[in-house]
Every structure is written in C-alpha cells, then in structure tokens.
Amino acid sequence: MEGKRERYNRYFANRYLQAGYEGVLIVDHDFRIVEISDTFCSMFHTERSRWLDQPAEQLFEQTGWKVPPMDRSLLRGCIFRNRTVDWSHGGRVLSLMLDGDILKDDNSDGIVGAYLIVRDVSNLIMLEDHVRQSDRLKTIGQIAAGTAHEIRNPLTAIRGFMQLLGQTLKERNMFKEGEYVKIMMSELDRVNELVNEFLLLSKPKEIKLTLTTIGTVLHEILPVIHNEALLHGITVHHESAPGLQPIWIDKEQLKQVFLNLSKNAIEAMSKGGTLTIRETIEPDRPAYLAITVQDTGPGIPEDVMERIFDPFFTTKPNGTGLGLSICQKIVHDMGGQLEVANSQSGASFIVWLPLPAAIVPDDADGGGAADNNVV
C-alpha cells in the first residue's frame, strides 16, 4: 500500500509540474535547483535544462529579479504565504503572488530543501482595478447628473434674458454694451458645454456594437487627425496590422476616443513631432487588440500620471478635465481598458479591446482591413 501511495504521489507531482497552472521552483539544502516547472520557465523566458543543479541566485539574477523572490533564509524555516510582488524585465510587467515553504525528510525530520510557487495574478488585479474604476465613475456620474440639471435650469433663463438684453441694446445703438453681452453669451455657452459633458459622463449612451475592423474606424478619422496635425507641424504615422479580425465595438463612440487621444497628443508636442497610431496584438495579452496613440512630446510627470483619469483633473488652462474620464468610460463600456505609460520618446495611451469571445450581438456590420499609412 505504501508503495502505491508513493507512486501516485509521484504521478501527481509530475502532473502538477507540467500542468501549467503555477510556476514551481524546488531547491535542495545547498540552494541549488532540483526541479523547475515549465510554467516557471515560460513566465520568465528561460529554459529548464539550463538551470538544473545551478544556484538559484544565478537564476534570479539572470531573469531580471531586482529583489530575489526567495533567499537562503527559507532553508532556515522563514516561510511565507501570499507575498505579492511586481516583476518587470524587458518591457514585460507581471503582478505575482508567491508562496515559499520548506521540504522535510520524514525519517530525520530535517530540512532537505525548499520550494517556491509563483502565481501570475496580473489579470485578477487588472479586473479589480476595472471594477473599482467603474464604481468610481458611476458614483461621480450620479453626482454630475444632479449638478448638471441644477445648473442647466437657471442657465437657460439667464441666457434667454441675455439675448433679449442684447437685442434691446442693439436697437438703442449701444454697441459697446452689446459687445459685453456677446462676451457674456460666449461664457454662458462655455458653461453649457461643460454641463453637456457632465451629462455625457453621467448618462451612459446606449452601446451599439457592430463587428468592425479597427482599421476601418481609424481610416475614417485619419483625415481629421491629419488636418489638425498639419496646423501644428506634426507628422502622423498609422501602423496597421493587416489581417486583424473584426471586433465588436461601438464605432462612433470609439471614434470620439481616438480623436480625443490624438488631439491631446498633438497639443503635447508644442515644438512639432510625430504622432503614431499603432495596431497590435501583444503576446502577453493575446485576448485583446491594442491600439496605441503615441507622441514624441515631453511625457507625463509621475505625479500627474496617477491622477490623469480623474474627472475634473486637468493641466490645460481652459480644460474641463473630463475628456480622458469620458474616453475611459467609453472603453470600459465595451469591455476594454485604457492605459497610459511614458516611453523614451514621449507618452503612450493604449486602448485594449477584447477580441470576439463573449459578446455576440444579433446584428453585425463587417469592416475591411487597413494598410500601413503615413499621412
């Protein structure tokens, strides 16, 4: 019976190491690698045969760990559970959860080694962030809706009386005073536009999903982006990926997102530069299509980066701080994410849109593929 149990334990251990659920690293009492699972190798882009019987410290150094996930103190019984760390190397970033424990000899009760279990929880953390952001937008939207309606009622009355006043001043040839009225009317219109943005943030528009290629959407707005870029001495590059499958999107609302992101990128390059719009499917997130809007401006300060999607936060003198919040809400409503990052050549906004899987509307409009363009 004992032999059978040991055999099945061995079968389970082999299956667990090969199943691909978690990354596993086993070391002996000298902290040399005894076994390393295929999942661990896949996570950190390395090969199993290269590290067997090698010191674990060398593996951690070679795979880009700034702080090793475990050290020799584990062999002295310093075990840990659910330790969360971020690992980044070569442009890849993973959110990981680690468990470390010891291995004992049942006969001598001595420590003969240790093991490390690594779980990639990047998608889980992304989902939690998505839920928190959606809840925050919903709450802000409810407040904005009530505020907007309270502002709109007196605003309508004020604007109506200002129009009557302007007409009266014109009839009495009081042109100087009439100019003051025009300025006040212009400011009232600006307030009205802000109220409309409040309502857009608070009142979700109906999402009308159609099956469309992203290239079709971008080609319809590229002339508008091109004209805006010309006024600022900026070159626009569109790097498409021919053959990308159509995705379920609200075409018109997504146009608003890309126009807003492109306009922000153009305004960030006050001395000219290049605006790049790129379509890709990243190996680390194969279930999503990524559309990157990248500029060659000065980038975004770190203190601003943390607040950039907060409603009413803006660095523009005449900005409302609602543009990016609305863009994020539109993308979220389509099941995607909107992210921002700095690169060596400026700032990048990445729109992640899910590839067809879960949502399949009754009606669908097809779209065509796009080619690479420099406009």
Explain what this protein looks like in three dimensions.
The protein starts with a helix and ends with a strand. Strands 11-12-10-9-7-13 form a six-stranded mixed β-sheet. Strand 4 and strand 5 (111-120) form a beta hairpin. Helix 5 (122-171) runs antiparallel to helix 6 (175-202), helix 7 (214-231) runs parallel beside helix 8 and helix 8 (251-268) runs antiparallel to helix 10 (323-333). It has three domains: 2-120, 2-Layer Sandwich (Beta-Lactamase); 121-203; 207-375, Histidine kinase-like ATPase, C-terminal domain (Heat Shock Protein 90, 2-Layer Sandwich). The protein contains ten helices and 13 strands. 43% of the residues lie in helices and 23% in strands. The longest helix is centred in the middle third of the chain and has 50 residues, at 122-171. The chain is an alpha+beta fold.
Strand and helix layout:
Layout: H1 2-18, E1 23-28, E2 33-36, H2 38-43, H3 48-51, H4 56-62, E3 80-89, E4 92-104, E5 111-120, H5 122-171, H6 175-202, E6 210-212, H7 214-231, E7 234-239, E8 247-249, H8 251-268, E9 273-280, E10 288-294, H9 302-305, H10 323-333, E11 337-343, E12 346-354, E13 373-374
Parallel strand pairs: 7-9
Antiparallel strand pairs: 1-2, 1-5, 3-4, 4-5, 6-8, 7-13, 9-10, 10-12, 11-12
* Cα end-to-end separation: 75 Å
Tally of separate domains:
3
Quickly give the CATH architecture of the largest domain.
2-Layer Sandwich
Number-wise, the strands total: 13
CATH H level, superfamily name of the largest domain? Histidine kinase-like ATPase, C-terminal domain
Strands across the major sheet, in which order?
11-12-10-9-7-13
- Classify the fold: give the CATH topology of the largest domain: Heat Shock Protein 90
| Mean pLDDT across every amino acid position | 82
User: What is the share of helical residues?
Assistant: 40-55%
- Largest sheet entry: 6 strands, mixed
Radius of gyration: 28 Å
N-to-C order of helices and strands: HEEHHHEEEHHEHEEHEEHHEEE
User: Could you say which structural class the secondary elements and strand pairing correspond to?
Assistant: alpha+beta
Q: Give the overall silhouette.
A: elongated
* Low-confidence parts: 358-375
